[in-house]
């Protein structure tokens, strides 16, 4: 007989987590070891169940993120006029609308348009397919300290889109009228800068704690969910053990999480489709 939740405490047990018995805990263990090499490398299920127990359940809200693949150039050209910037020594605090001239000389690579840059900044990392045939991985280096404003929420509030707006639909709207698109993007004063990162092609992008793993890594609010926390999630057909390994400026509050979906357009479509409530159960040490 499987153990039940202890009635005298109301605590959850692993049998209260639908899908726990079928989850690939070896995959979670491998992702966990990317941030903590001291974690044992075998007997994942036995180790998790002996070391942790389900903690208090939170009302979760989940979105998704991914690593985009973008066409780019090492040099500016008519086809690639939009710079990705590195972080200056000492930082910078100017808002998005006025920051570009102040970052002259800090160009890392060049993209096709401001929409590609904006969404790269939202995701925080990317793979650049360069015109010389090489690939550059870029990761988060810092930002300008300005608050993040969701332009998607602005358009929903203004009645331009319904709440089921997709990222691709938003990109199309921004590009249909570049001046209108630039004006809207400038309503988000936050501006992210990047650095080149050396990672294996098989490795996910660098998160706040370590490289992230598709469908196992979460971006969280570390003020509520410490990095390294194991979290059981149930949302949109996903029932799996994940790890808090990343953060994001839009990820705020208890139970708030961004699930990493992987690299490329398909991962982006899946990530963009996730925006709903679900079950968020942190594990705590016994």
Automatic annotation (TrEMBL):
One of its GO terms (molecular function) is hydrolase activity, hydrolyzing O-glycosyl compounds. Its EC number is 4.2.2.n1. Residues 69-195 form the Lytic transglycosylase MltA domain. One of its GO terms (cellular component) is outer membrane. GO terms for biological process: cell wall organization; peptidoglycan catabolic process; peptidoglycan turnover. It catalyses: Exolytic cleavage of the (1->4)-beta-glycosidic linkage between N-acetylmuramic acid (MurNAc) and N-acetylglucosamine (GlcNAc) residues in peptidoglycan, from either the reducing or the non-reducing ends of the peptidoglycan chains, with concomitant formation of a 1,6-anhydrobond in the MurNAc residue. Keywords: Cell wall biogenesis/degradation, Lyase. InterPro entries: 3D_dom, MltA, MltA_B, RlpA-like_sf. This is peptidoglycan lytic exotransglycosylase. It comes from Jannaschia faecimaris.
């Amino acid at each position: 007989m499987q153990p039940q939740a202890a009635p005298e405490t109301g605590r959850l047990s692993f049998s209260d987590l639908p899908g726990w018995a079928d989850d690939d805990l070896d995959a979670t263990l491998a992702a966990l070891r990317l941030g903590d090499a001291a974690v044992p490398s075998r007997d994942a299920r036995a180790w998790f169940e002996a070391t942790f127990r389900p903690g208090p359940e939170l009302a979760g809200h989940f979105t998704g993120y991914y690593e985009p693949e973008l066409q780019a150039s090492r040099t500016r050209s008519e086809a690639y006029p939009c710079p990705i910037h590195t972080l200056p020594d000492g930082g910078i605090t100017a808002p998005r609308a006025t920051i570009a001239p102040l970052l002259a000389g800090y160009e890392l690579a060049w993209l096709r348009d401001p929409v590609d840059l904006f969404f790269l900044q939202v995701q925080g990392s990317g793979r650049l397919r360069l015109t010389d045939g090489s690939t550059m991985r870029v990761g988060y280096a810092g930002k300008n300290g300005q608050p993040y404003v969701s332009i998607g929420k602005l358009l929903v509030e203004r009645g331009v889109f319904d709440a089921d707006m997709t990222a691709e639909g938003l990109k199309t709207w921004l590009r249909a009228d570049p001046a209108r698109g630039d004006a809207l993007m400038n309503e988000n004063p936050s501006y992210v800068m990047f650095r080149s990162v050396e990672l294996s092609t098989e490795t996910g992008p660098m998160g706040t704690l370590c490289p992230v793993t598709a469908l196992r890594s979460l971006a969280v609010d570390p003020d509520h969910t410490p990095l390294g926390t194991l979290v059981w999630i149930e949302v949109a057909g996903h029932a799996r053990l994940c790890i808090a390994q990343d953060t994001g400026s839009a990820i705020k509050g208890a139970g708030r999480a961004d699930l990493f979906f992987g690299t490329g357009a398909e991962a982006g479509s899946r990530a963009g489709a996730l925006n709903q409530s679900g079950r968020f159960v942190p594990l705590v040490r016994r």
